Amino acid sequence: MMTYDTTPAPFRYIDSLEEKQHIVLFYDDPEYARLIEFRFIKNGLLSGERCIYATEDDSGPIILKFLNYGIPLEYFLSKKIRMIQIRNACGKHDEIVEKSKKELQKIREGLVPPFRIVSRIVPDVSTADGISAELELEKLVHHSFDDFCGSLMCPYDISGIEKTKRKQWLEELRLYHHICIYAPKFGQGGVFCSY
Question: How many other C-beta atoms lie within 10 A of the C-beta of residue 38?
């Protein structure tokens, strides 16, 4: 009798990740996305990598979700996982870029390779200024990725991206990453090479 692997494609990809990658995660279901992000982090920890989870959300509930997912508290106490709360950078494009570059420095501060990071540096991409600033930063990171000694996952709730040019924004985001994970609903999705 033939058996099929029913593990969703995003999980299979995360489980097979061996080299550093710049990954974009497009999702519709935040809880499914969180499972993918947590698996990415957990696999990194099991491989001896340091991990950073940077989010606009309060870290307390996120840590509880990590614990419920099965990531032991000892990883937080030993600082193998760092939680960073990103402040929303308001203003016009140039102001957002400058404030976000400071957040990037904070994330990379004291980081020892190999590592994994889950983060999107501009929390509010629902405006043209927000998404264009985020794209500028993604391009900057992607073009200097050879000097980046770890893997980076950038999550995007598709419904939260500025609507008037959403298709264009998504295409540009895809171009500034090595891999695109599309995860619409739990158990669904695919993984696409971006280059």
Answer: 20
Cα–Cα distance between 130 and 133 in angstroms, integer?
A: 5
Predicted pLDDT of residue 195: 61
The predicted-structure confidence for 98-113, as pLDDT tens digits, reads as follows: 999 998 888 888 888 9
67 three-class SS: helix
Strands 190-193 and 179-183: antiparallel
Instruction: Report the first-to-last Cα separation within the chain, whole angstroms.
Output: 37
79: which DSSP letter? T
Tokens of 195: 């280059």
Instruction: With H, G, I as helix, E, B as strand and everything else as coil, classify residue 47.
Output: coil
The amino acid sitting at 107 is I
Percent of residues, the chain, with pLDDT higher than 90: 74
CA 27 to CA 33: how far, in whole Å? 6
Q: Is this model's pTM higher than 0.90 or not?
A: yes
C-alpha pair distances (Å), 66 with each of 39, 40, 106, 117? 10, 12, 22, 15
Q: Which two tokens stand for residue 173?
A: 């985001």
Q: Which domains does the chain have, with CATH numbers?
A: 9-193 (3.40.50.300)
